[in-house]
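Obj: model holo form, ligand = heme C.
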Amino acid sequence: MTTSGRIFLIACLLALLAFAALACEPATGEHQPTDDGAYGDDSLVVDDGQPMAGGDATVFDRSASAFSHPAPNLTDESLALHERGRQLFNQVFSADSDAVFFGLGPMFNNTACVNCHAHNGRGMPTFDEDEGHSQALMKVAVPEDFGGVPDKPGGPLPVPGIGTQIQDHAIDGFVPDAKLTLAYHSRQVVYADGSTVELMRPDVTITPIAIDEFPEETMTSYRQGPPMHGLGLLEAIPTETIIAWSDPDDVDGDGISGKVNYQFSLDGEDLLIGRFGHKNSNPTLFQQTANAYAFDIGIGNQFFLDPMGNNDEIGEEEIELVAFFLATIGVPARTNLDDPKVIRGEDLFDDIGCVKCHISTVTTGEHPIAELSHQKIHPYTDLLLHDMGEGLANTKREFNAGGAEWRTPPLWGIGVTHTVLPDSGFLHDGRARTIEEAIMWHKGEALHSRELFRNMPKEDRDALLAFLNSL
Ligand code: HEC
Ligand code: HEC
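Output (holo structure tokens):
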């Protein structure tokens, strides 16, 4: 299948079964410094008085471009690689064979990385025919007893004639897999003090185009793109630290398990720990990028074929540059640290157990990008999968992750989400219009925390929200 590409790991990962360290290749690429000078902005000078959300990779900008800065500690050489990766990330692909960036599709969801991660922030959870592209993805699979061969060992089984992701757009002369339409149902939830909040639940209708009908057994999972800042620091959290945080059998009896997802390396030979994607289904930024090119844009590469079986529409060096860019985007510093309400909110966040999954502080290990190594960071995630209850569940499994299990998203920078993209939403499918709604969707392992929040007086709820908005 598509898994025979040579191994390349941009992060130092452990072969988990053997617990043996794999060789770590530094990111390569042409080391051509640019004299772009675009990043010499004084507003990004490090201020020791602020907790450095991303360690030395923290940036001081909470405007709409908060996620658009390279980590300020990059060397000139790294900055040049970052810049080259940024250009590729922003590159729109075309079906026109005269274009430099040619090879779009023939089936695709969108035409550029940045179109689903605008301003390096999260995507919108939308399917939009009129714009010629969609920002949300609908992943699909059939159950094991249906038959078929997974793309990757242990991975999801493709829906015959479709694959594992619905491409809802196609270039001229081809048909998309299906048309996707979105509707919302609302319901009220009530706080202990009698006030209410309205929660919106999405419902996606799949109308097949490329096949007559989807098998009845088809499992689905609808998602929006997460934001892009600080991802290299997440890649640099030591594997052993994440495993130590996990408690799959809830041995400590606190109702919170937290498990790692495992999946195969690009050559299918090693089992690695997942860190990226809402179900942790990609172990490295390199793998996530190679996968996104093939499945989201239809740009086949040696690691993942596009829907037509092409494998040569983008090279390894370009994928590495994009992964380098993603790894080195800075994290916005926190704000309003002296505000008593924020201080109170932070205490509440700890007291009601939010911090058990949204772990506040960790130190990164060795990363091939030296600037990311040994940084004390405040990502507010354990990078583990948690059962979040039926309300948030999809029907599709992904490797070790069940339908109701989602990766704890990092909360750093969450306070600028609406500054970066005003209409964007929270949770894996953007259903929550506000942070408050996102909290009220927490059930499963997070039910206890959510209930403590629901029972708080309004003043405390506001303090907790003020804290989250300070991140
Ligand atoms: C059609 C929209 C779309 C396009 C185009 C797209 N993405 Fe994404 N991206 C998503 C969605 C949706 C997810 C969540 C996937 C999942 O949960 O498995 C995602 C996840 C990611 C993640 C994981 C982030 C995290 O916190 O786990 C990275 C990194 C990423 N995309 C980078 C890219 C790059 C690089 C490209 C271009 C090669 C790209 N994306 C193209 C929608 C898109
Ligand atoms: C059991 C682990 C767990 C606990 C406890 C928990 N969370 Fe979460 N949190 C998650 C997971 C997993 C998600 C992602 C769910 C999804 O995408 O459907 C999430 C999502 C969020 C989001 C949305 C983030 C985004 O980028 O869209 C916010 C905000 C949040 N949590 C805040 C809180 C607060 C505040 C508390 C305490 C009241 C809390 N969480 C307790 C695991 C947890």
